[in-house]
Protein: VOC domain-containing protein
Amino acid sequence: MKIIVTSIFVEDQDKALEFYSETLGFVKKHDVPTGEYRWITLVSPDEQDGTELLLEPNEHPAAKEYQQKLFADGIPVTMFGVKDIHKEYNRLMEKGVTFTMEPTNMGDITIAVFDDTCGNLIQIIQQ
Structure:
């Protein structure tokens, strides 16, 4: 068994697609109409056959509440690995990304947290 898709709730699928592809650099794999919304997944440019990230509409009241409470409490909804966190931090800062935590050493790892502009905090990690 392996993980093939993981999802995050987003407030606006178009805005999320733009942020995750143009700002973060993920590659769109699927964009399929599913009624009122779309099945939009992205992959890492380095692993285009790897795990897909689904941009899930947060239209269900429980999804909205979950997303809002995690954001309010400063809890990231997912984590992305990077090779050089300081380089990635600077690249994203230049693109106007807002960080709630600058790169912080935590023993064997360094983490940082940013706002994805779609209702989520995202953690990046260098191991």
Q: What stands out?
A: Residues 5-126 form a domain with the 2,3-Dihydroxybiphenyl 1,2-Dioxygenase; domain 1 fold (CATH 3.10.180.10). The CA atoms of residues 55 and 100 lie 22 Å apart. Helices lie at 13-23, 61-72, 85-94.
